[in-house]
C-alpha cells in the first residue's frame, strides 16, 4: 500500500461519541487512489456522515490513522488541519451553503479566502471555475436568482476553485430534482476526467451506481467494496436500480 | 510516511476587515441599533465635557476681558463681632499705594429708598440700594454705560442718578431724562449702566454723586466698598497691603476679596455637577457595550452554519476569532464615531444658544474613539472565542 498514489488512506479508523460510548465508525480501512472517483453508500445512521467528517479532517478519529494527500492528520494541529482544508480539500454540501445576497463570483471566490490569495486574483479564478461548471453567464447573480441545480454548480465551483486534489461531496443531488441531479453528476464526472479525486457520500444507490467504485457502509463498518469484487454490494445496488 | 505540509491557512488583514463589514451590512438594522447604544453613551460624555469646557472657555474669555486684578475692600467685623466702618479717606489712601492703578469708593445710604414715583409707598424699596459713587467708579470697574452719561463735576452735586441695569428695570426706566424718587426728592436719570459682571451689587443700585449723597443724609458717609484696580502682576501684594493702608489702627477689621476668584469658585462647583453627568454617561456607555456583546453573542449563535462552512473552506480557529472580534470592533467604532458627531453637535448647539465659544479638547474626541474600541474589544472577545470553538462539523449537519 503505497502512500504516494493514495489521496486518502484510512487505517483501522474508529470513532466513538459520548458516555456511554456509541461507535459511529468501527475499524474502517479504506484507500482512495489519486484520480479515483467513488461513492460511499449507506442508509442513514450507518456512519457515513462521520466518515465524511473524518475524510474532510473536520473530525479526528478516536483511534486508527488518517492520511489525506500524504499528510498524517494526527500530527496536525488546528492550524495545519485548516491549511489542509484550505489547500487540498473541496467540500460540496447537500444544502449548498451559499451566502445569500452575495454574487456568484464572490461566493466562489470565498473558496480561496483562506489561502491568502488577493481579492482580484480570487475573483479571476472564480470566473474560471464558473466557466468550468458552465455558469459563466450567471456571474453577477445572487443565489435566490438561481435554480437549485445552478446553486449546486456554484457550490461545486467554490469547492474546486483552489484545484484541490480531493473533492468531498455530501449528498450533492439530495436537494435537487432528477434532471438537475443528473447534470450535477455529469459535472462531477467531468471534474473526475480532469484528474480530481472525488468521494461522494450518499444513501442513494441509483446515484452510487453511476460512479466507477462503490463502498458500502453499514453500522459503522465497511460492508462491501465494488473494487474487491464484492458480489453482495453489486447485487444490492443492482437490485435497487 | 507523512509529508510535511508546505502551505498555511492564511487570511489577509484586508479580508478580515472586509468580512467584518460584510457581516454588519448583512444585518443593517441590528448593527445600527446596537451601535446606537454606544453612540448615546459617547455622545453624552462628549457633550458633558464639551459643554463644561466651552463654558470654561467662555469664563476664561470673560476673565481675560474683565481682568483678575480687581479687589473689593469692605468693612468687616471687629474682634468683638461688631460691624466696623471704613474710614472716609479709604479710597484716597489706597490710591496712594504703589501698584494701584485706581480706587473708587461707594457708600450705601441705608435709610433711603428709590421709587418709580412719589405715589409709591416708602416701604416698597424693591430690593434696590441707593449708593454714592465717585467719579472714578466707571474706570475702576471697567463698567460701561448702556445709555446716557456718567456724573460730571457739575451733576455730582445735583439730584441726578445713574441706574444699574437691574435698578433701571425695577424702576421702569428705559431712557435717560426720566424722573425717579430718591428718599423724598425727585431725581433725573442721567444714564443707565450695562451689567457689571465683577460687581453685581452695582446692578441693583441707584447711584448718586458723593456731594448729593451728603446732601441727602446731611452728613459725610463712610464708604461701604472700595474697588481697587492693582497692577496685574502685583495683585497679591496689594491685597496684603490694603488693610494696613486703609485702617492702620485695626487692619484686621478690613476685608479684601477678589471677585474673579468667586467666579472661578462658581465654575468649580459646576465641575462637581459635570462629574455626576460624566458618571451617567459612562453608565450609558457600559449599557451600550453590553448591547454590542449581546448582539455578537446572538450573531454567533445564528451563524453556526456559516462558521462551520468557513472552517470547511479552511479557516483556522484564529481566523474565525478575528472575524468576530473585528465585527465587534467595527460595530463599536460605528457607535463611537456616531457618538462623537452627535456629542459635538449637541455641544455646538448648546454653546451657540448660550453664546459661548465651541471648545472641545481633541483629546476627549480621541479618547471617546479609543474608549469605544476598548469596549468593542471587551464586548467582542467572549463571543469571538465562542465562535472559534464551534466545531467545524456543524457545516455538515442537517
Explain this structure to me?
Chain A is of the alpha/beta class. In chain A, 34% of the residues lie in helices and 26% in strands. Chain A has helices spanning 48-55, 78-88, 104-109, 119-132, 148-160, 178-193, 205-209, 231-240; strands at residues 6-17, 22-33, 37-41, 63-68, 71-72, 89-92, 166-170, 197-202, 213-218, 221-225. In chain A, strands 6-7-8-3-9-10 form a 6-stranded mixed beta sheet, sandwiched between helices. In chain A, strands 2-1-4-5 form a 4-stranded antiparallel beta sheet, covered by helices on one side. In chain A, helix 4 packs across helix 5 (148-160) and helix 5 (148-160) runs parallel beside helix 6. Chain A starts with 5 loop residues before the first strand and ends with a helix. Mean pLDDT of chain A is 89; it is low at 237-241. Chain B is an alpha+beta fold. Chain B is 53% helix and 15% strand. In chain B, helix 10 (317-354) packs antiparallel against helix 11. The relative contact order of chain B is 0.19.
Task: Give the topology, please.
The complex is a heterodimer of chains A (241) and B (398).
Chain A: E1 6-17, E2 22-33, E3 37-41, H1 48-55, E4 63-68, E5 71-72, H2 78-88, E6 89-92, H3 104-109, H4 119-132, H5 148-160, E7 166-170, H6 178-193, E8 197-202, H7 205-209, E9 213-218, E10 221-225, H8 231-240
Parallel strand pairs in A: 3-8, 3-9, 6-7, 7-8
Antiparallel strand pairs in A: 1-2, 1-4, 4-5, 9-10
Chain B: H1 13-25, H2 28-66, E1 70-75, H3 90-95, E2 100-108, E3 114-115, E4 129-133, H4 137-141, E5 145-148, E6 160-163, H5 165-171, E7 179-182, E8 185-193, E9 205-209, H6 210-217, E10 225-230, H7 235-246, E11 254-257, H8 259-302, H9 304-312, H10 317-354, H11 362-389
Parallel strand pairs in B: 4-9, 6-8
Antiparallel strand pairs in B: 1-10, 1-11, 2-4, 2-10, 3-7, 5-8, 6-9, 7-8
Helix pairs in contact in B: 1-10, 2-8, 2-10, 2-11, 8-10, 8-11, 10-11
